[in-house]
Amino acid sequence: MKDEDIVLTDEHPEASLRHMIRPIVRVGLKPVPPKAAISLRVDADVLDWFKSQGPGYQTRINAILRAYMHEVER
Hints:
Elements: H1 17-21, H2 44-52, H3 57-73
């Protein structure tokens, strides 16, 4: 298939490097701990701010909570 034969749409956009690298096996790295789905109530303006920072807002919230957890453990 040639590049000009590929039809890109909003539903099927071009894959970014991030999408191609993500599934690569993490050889030699610690396993990623499993995630737990929860329901969490936060102020609407806080959630709006995280969402306004772009995709991955849940990951950023998790990272901030993890940093707080490690700081409290000191």
